[in-house]
Amino acid sequence: MAVAAAALVLAACGQGQLQKAEPRGFAAVDTARISAESGGNEWLTYGGTYDEQRHSKLTAINKENVGELGVAWTYDLATNRGVESTPIVVDGTMYVTSAWSIVYALDAKTGAEKWVHDPEADRAVGVNACCDVVNRGVAVYDGKVYVGVIDGRLEALNAATGEVVWSTVTVDQSKPYTITGAPRVVNGKVLIGNGGAELGVRGYLSAYDANTGELVWRFYTVPNPAKQPDGAASDDAFVKVGNVTWGDEGAWVTDGGGGTVWDSIVYDEVNNQIIFGVGNGSPWNRNFRDPSAGDNLFLSSIVAVDAETGAYKWHFQTTPGDNWDYTATQTIILADLPLGENGAPRRVAMQAPKNGFFYVVDAATGEFLSGDAYVPMNWATGLDENGRPIEVPEARYSKQPYEQLPGPLGGHNWHPMAFNPDLGLAYIPAQEIPQAYSEDPRFNSRPVGWNTGVDFSAGVPPIAPPEVAKFLRSSLKGRLIAWDPVARQPRWSVEHGNAWNGGVLSTAGGVVFQGKLNGEFVSYDAATGDKLWSYNLKSGGASGPGTFMVDGEQYVTITTGWGSAFALAAGFAYDDKVASTVGKVVTFKMGATGEIADAGLAPIDATPKGEAFGSLALVSEGAVHYARNCMVCHGPLAVSSGVLPDLRWSAIAGNADAWKGVVIDGNLSANGMVSFSEYITPDEAEAIRAYVLTQAHAASAPAEQPSP
Predict the structure, then answer these.
(1) The sheet that has 113-118: what strands, in order across it?
(2) Alpha-carbon Rg for the chain in angstroms
(3) Which of 182, 244, 340, 448 lies 20 to 30 A from 100 at CA?
(4) 632 shares a domain with 579
């Protein structure tokens, strides 16, 4: 493996760099080539084209013959954690990533391995990854492959060999930043954001020189605590519009405010600007974040900046004063729609963010053109003439829980949306996942790791038999919506059996492809939604598929892997869990007869490994601490989906000393399970153990039989 081991000793923040020899033997990929050729024979950038439409011009695979697709080849990605990568294909080579930011170069025709690069990130940083240690892919440019590493590095690799050309630390590594998104490259600059708003950071988007790794510009999305200039491209924006939307007190002053740019970075060629989406506040709860109750720019906003300098141009805020983790980091698509005078084409940006409204804004100015609910919701009744949500008062929750749609996983999450310009349809991987929001009464009284200000234990019984999980599961829905942004309504919709289904690929062959939570890879008629073909991937299919042409044959490819936010945080959501198999690249072509090998892990012994103990008061206390510290990775009700250990069946849960050794002493830090001694006491850890074992016995108890 080509390993950038030396990158781990770079400076904790700033622009520390490791540099090696320049790449050679690789055809030039520049802005013009990405603009002209991506979305055709090659897939040169994450969204397929700079407009991020994920629409291919290829027609060799079409709705008449798609049923003849078969497996051409597969490649194991050596992980059972989440895989979210869209493969990049250039000059017959496929570049793809897996968990822990590992990069693979494969022969696009055969799947043969060319090289592998492991950045060797310290696994302890996994605790900072809100939504699993995933990576959505790479960028290619001028003989280099660029990858954002989970620990905050940005690396440039020789595209032919995988050797490190340069490595730059893009964050303060003493803070809980992560990178999971795919970089974008344009005009010699690499664009990358970061994550970490759930744990308390200040977000920004950075542009680095593609050849040297030196910082070119940076745009912060939250003002600094003093509301003074940073010497950054965003200074003018905060003076003009941002500073007045923040108060002078609240958790944002010390916790950074959030606003991370963890996805959706788009190059608008026509206006030579970068349009990007901004995430949620830190903490989520605005009452704690900023008691002045301002709009808090640029949280949950679409922002446009000059591509060369990063200077502010415009913004549109989808959720003013975000209170619910309603990020606007979901797919942003550029297109020309007949919305101008007398139906003339108008260049627009479209987004279906978490909050449940589908937005269309003018790409040049950010002017609000339309916004409509694409999923059921009860937090707002609509939008006013300026696009501002008309909120339901109860949605600004306090100590009284409010069960809300959408919940924090959104009406649409990171799964890529697509757009067919011939049909004028946007394809949204939509979902319904409600959440009861309630103010965390302990937020200001003690340190917190998961920095939300929300009490996730509100309304949840401390002892929950399987019937509770079954009831919660019944509220989850998923669907693929073909949305007409001109008519402002769905043209067709396909219902799925559960939430959290995969990204979408549109093709000029009249076909839409989508992977599903249950492992089914499906093609639909792009105009009608009729199902045309499906294949069992034998693992979750959440990633965005891609397509390309090699030697006159069209291929369709997708990465698979069981994990990411929903699998970690919603283990209760599955009747039959998707097999926790090794992630793969699965590539199809016409008439192929390959198979996907089974790679299931050993079955879990689903029995309690210790006796239940403790009073109802102790178990209830454990439920609160579990919800605050453990739930996001090990699942509500202590029900895991199989990505990380199901604590109910863990041998460690049956041994008080072993439990303390892991939870308090950090004996498994090398696996990503770090010590929580900063947030809970040993007695509280023992209360969590009491809760977990109580849940285990409740789940394993025989169901009550009806009376004769």
Answers:
(1) 2-3, 113-118, 103-107, 93-97, 88-90
(2) 24
(3) 448
(4) no
Instruction: Quote the pLDDT of residue 570.
Output: 74
Give the count of domains, the chain: 2
Q: What is the DSSP string of 528-594?
A: T--EEEEEE-SS---SPPEEEEETTEEEEEEEE-S-HHHHHH-GGG-SSPPP-BPPEEEEEEET--B
How far apart CA 374 and CA 358 sit, in angstroms, is 6
Choice among 51, 268, 325, 440 that is catalytic: 325
- Same domain flag for 689 and 542: no
Cα 665 to chain centroid distance, Å, stands at: 31
Judge if the upstream peptide bond of residue 283 is cis by omega within 30 degrees of 0.
yes
Residue 551 has a CB neighbour count (10 Å cut-off) of 7
| Structural domain for 664, as ranges | 616-700
Average the pLDDT over 691-701 and give the result.
Answer: 87
691: which strand partners? none
pTM of the model: 0.93
Judge whether 320 lies within some domain. Answer: yes
pLDDT at 4 over 80: no
**Are 470 and 579 in the same domain?**
yes
Tell me whether residue 440 is one of the annotated catalytic residues.
no
Final residue belonging to a domain, choices 590, 607, 637: 590
Q: Is residue 598 part of a domain?
A: no
Specify the pLDDT at position 26. Answer: 52
Tokens of 150: 């989970």
Amino acid identity at 12: A
* Residue of 106 and 679 predicted with greater confidence: 106
* Average model confidence (pLDDT) across the chain: 90
Residues 195 and 82 in one domain: yes
